[in-house]
Amino acid sequence: MDFTSFQKLAAVHGTPTLFLSENRLREAYRELKNALPGVTLYYAVKSNAAPPFVSILRSEGCFFDVCSNGEIEVVKRAGVIPGQCLHTHPIHRGNDIRSAFDFGITRFVVDNEDELPKFLPYKNAAELLVRMSIQNPNCLVNLSHKFGIAPELTFDLIQKAAALGLNVRGICFHCGSQNENALKYIEALEYCRDICRKAALKGIAIKIIDIGGGFPINYLTPVLPLAEFCEPINEYLERYFSNYDIIAEPGRVLSGPAMTLATRVIGRSLRSGVWWYYLDEGVYGSFSGKIYDHADYPMFMSRPGPRYDSVLAGPTCDSIDVPYEHIALPILEIGDLLVFESMGAYTSASASNFNGFEKANIVVVE
Q: Is residue 146 scored above 90 in pLDDT?
């Protein structure tokens, strides 16, 4: 949509509002599906668990990556069946496993020896994927910092699980969020090849390779088109893993481009020669991704004129609530509308009602 369209929408729905484009979400899913033919996509619900995301993706045939009892409830209410879910949290409370089994989920992820005994009561039904760490300091968020076992120790963990009578069905990894280096997937798949060979020699049948998520989207700088980015991954999978079930856990690449924030200037103040503009949305709300996800979002406005060093602050009484400093802006007026694109991932998902300010409404549009 153009800026005028968002002005009209904001006039009807108020601000702050997150507008979820159903068409854009469907297009994102279909683009990734076409870029990774033969790969089953499990949407990472944690990137945005708003019910419309789950319902729209379910209607596209998407499967779901869930990490908690709360996310299971979200997909359950959307009519998702258990066979379309994978429980990917590597650390489990006892009731996490029980609740997932009560729903019907049987596939889980582990990454260390202490998690294995938790599945002994379910060993006749549970299928386990062992999560391998892939270090990637150049991605936006290194998701192997907290989870995953070192590649050289992965086979040992698989053997220990098998020795307990547990059914290890696959290997999973995550190359990091907003990963712009497709060769990281190849690096991880090389490790998987070696582990699968060792497992086969021990009579352990690895059938599932989960390549995680991390596929990049455009923020302030463009990234490779998905088809081009995924080309080397597809070639490697076709050459070495054609007899395996390949799955992926896309989050940001689906949810990120689908949502746009409309927010207004509710106040301004000239402080030490710098204009501070106070918005009705901040880092405790939809701009939480500025802190937790380290993302910058494309911004649009209608006011022309020379630009000056400025600050965009949020509405709460906390001084940390400053989404942007040292940003070049024209002189804004109270009531001016600002629009931020690519705000579907890790924004409203990590927002709060701090200081009594409610989360931005989500409105579905075409």
A: no
